[in-house]
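yo, ROK family protein is done. seq:
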Amino acid sequence: MKIGLDVGGTKTDAVAVDAGGTIIGRVRLATGWGPEAVTGTVLAAVRALGADAGVDVTAIDSVGIGIPGQVEPGTARVVHAVNLGVDELDLAAAVGPVLGVPVRAENDVKAAAFGAYALHGGSGSMAYLNLGTGIAAGVVSDGKLWRGARGTAGEVGHISVDPGGPLCRCGQRGCIEAFAGGGAIAERWNRPGSLPIRDVFDAADEGDGFARELRSGLARGVAAAVRVLVLTADVDTVVLGGGVTALGARLMADVGAELAASAEASPFMRSLHLEERVELLPAGSPAAALGAALIGAARDPEGVLAHG
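structure:
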């Protein structure tokens, strides 16, 4: 049996996966702040799988952890996980001796891409586009996760699509993330509310001009990311996930309209059938935790395959 954890900025999602690839237990708990608290969260999540989900924790063979930040390939060493208060943390050293099993880690978006690919059937090629506070993607082809030469494959959020567009936190203007990132939209909206993206959509429906501008920009940014992923990696499918996708059909309708508009103006773009190649990850899907479990169990984490 293998354990996978998706360690997020506020919550940690943990799953237990049996030898046949079936999820047999799942728990969620709050994520602590700082290296020691993150380590404690991982250990508490594994214990909770036993206590709350009835998983036999003595049967665990491996642990995989999806976590924000940069992860050294093939290891569990994470750096610059700023949303967790972690500058550097070797999770294998911190967690492995306590659990007594191999521990590996992967960037959370790449882990989610791997899990989404497995949930999608584990064949062909797929890009997972995470629409959260920021924008990033992971690409899986023929069961293999594509990291790139320096691990930055899929960082589409910082591709500038409008040099005169809004300022991005990276210092450029008009980045995809500046248009479609949840953090950037909330900052530009700058109004009270616990769900600013939903508030923007609601205000746009009511005729607010600025909200309409932000909503249009979001669709423009997501559509641009889809085009980039298809035109560069020629994936069969682009699966959208992340917190912004809680908007569901409202988001998909806007993105579909933006893709249709570009197709209308270009026979070449029409030939790509982009609207048919975009899907939404089902709400509540444990893609990142599942992907982490599969990566943690791989004998060769650099050539890890999602088949089966």
